[in-house]
Amino acid sequence: MGLLEGKTALVTGASRGIGRAIAIKFAEHGAFVGINYFKSREKAEKVLDEVKKYSDGMILKADVSDDMEVKKMVEIFVEKAEKIDILVNNAGIYRRSLFLHIKPEQWDEIMNVNLKGCYNVCRHSIPYMKEGGKIVFMSSQLAFKGSTHGADYAASKAGILGFMRSLALELADRKINVNAVAPGTIDTDIIASYTPEQREKRAMEVPLKRIGMPEDVANACLFLASGLSDYITGETIHVNGGLYIH
Length: 246
What we know:
alpha/beta, Rossmann fold, 8 helices, 7 strands
């Protein structure tokens, strides 16, 4: 029996990187997984193929910043899954920019996807969640330490934490746990442009002497999505190899 046997899980931004790892990890533990994607159906279908090696699932196209697309996505998921036990707000975007180079359009785009997207998905999903539900938000170590090249991203990820803590308090009476994960440097598209020398330098800056893998973050999400975390709410788990200890 897996930790999520009989559960349903909706994971946003699940066609690649951390979201992909979460979807597969949840399937390994028995969950029916909704794989949200925005642009690449091909990548989402490949994740679904991996998911079906262990459990079952479906792909769901939606731009999380678009309220009506999210509403339709949730309705399609619930029509097949009948409920939402676990919600992982993972979808997000990052644009490497110095603050004075951030145009208003970019600021709005980052906030609309990273923060408003969480609002949209939660607003339409929570009505389908019952006692014992789990909500997991994807924040970042930059929400705590700031960024020299992504003030918009850091602000959006810090906003997520305020939203998470508020929902944790509000949904406690309904026995729905709400928590967050704050990854450090993880081997995803964000660092795909690193040279081997840059990767080595970054790894050596981490006390555990390696760059994190998406599976490291997925393991933390699995804990927060399972019954093992029933008495934890309003908290943030840092997954950064000791790079930033809060």
